[in-house]
Amino acid sequence: MSNLDLRPSPSLCGGSSRTGPVRDLQPGKQVPLGESTVVRRLLPNLGRRMVGAWCFVDHYGPDDIVDQPGMQVPPHPHMGLSTVSWLHDGEVLHRDSLGSLQTVRPRELGLMTSGRAIAHSEESPHGHGPLLHGAQLWVALPDAHRDTAPHFEHHTDLPLITGGGGLAATVILGELDGATSPGTTYSPLVGADLTLTAGTDTRLPLDPDFEYAALTISGETEVDGVRLAPGALLYLGCGRAELPLRAHSDSGLLLLGGEPFEEEIVMWWNFVGRTHEDIARARDDWSSGTRFGEVLGYDGDRLSAPELPPGPLKPRGRTR
């Protein structure tokens, strides 16, 4: 998924930011994506730029796309990050400059690591279903791995944690309660899809060294006593050995976490770098048709890069 803002603001991220347990409700904003999709952009926001290495979160739907084209995101570049596609309803057809062609369906992991450079497109396939609902997330790559070779992974068999109290958890990425996703990671983190039946009142074990956030996908839940409606992101801080969860209706949550990202990064448009020069070079390479390759088979033009801001992009520590 792309940031389609023609005037994207630089996101000054990273740096040590270990806080104890908190309950910090993060505001999102409505952002148009492609021809007919509007998303709730929850990270980055004015109050928080990252949760562990998670640096970008869009939640979309559920949208009725019976008479609509659905998701239509033309070819665009990525650098220095991994993208995670996660669906509750619908299908997304992924194409990339490596030649990958894959339809990602609900509860399947579409994981694309851009490394030094990749381009891809995302679209609802012809004959798509009536609904589109899911999330698109980015993970910043640490400096030691940001120039790794690009690759795409599709995993349909993900570990499921079940227990008493009406909670089931699919481990999308990383590790949770002893279960590990097959998706490739480059820093300690976790992403999990939590399903809670109405009346659930339970506690989920966590790693106290991680910071966490919870995103309500559907239904109404209480996360550590805070009642969340769909589309709400609650930042939870570090130092938690467990997380109290209650569901007032059948509900779905995304749990995101990881060790606080100690490095300083600059995120602009679809790129994660360390300096202004990193970003400017990537933009020039995309505009000149070098480095990122070509996405074949998409019916339409690729995205053009927006103009850089007038001043230099500077990496800084995470600010609030």
From TrEMBL:
Coiled coil: none annotated. Residues 192-290 form the Pirin C-terminal domain. Residues 1-30 are annotated as: Disordered. It holds the Pfam family Pirin_C. It comes from the Bacteria. InterPro entries: Pirin (IPR012093), Pirin_C_dom (IPR008778), Pirin_N_dom (IPR003829), RmlC-like_jellyroll (IPR014710), RmlC_Cupin_sf (IPR011051). Residues 43-139 form the Pirin N-terminal domain. Belongs to the pirin family. This is Pirin family protein. It comes from Streptomyces sirii.
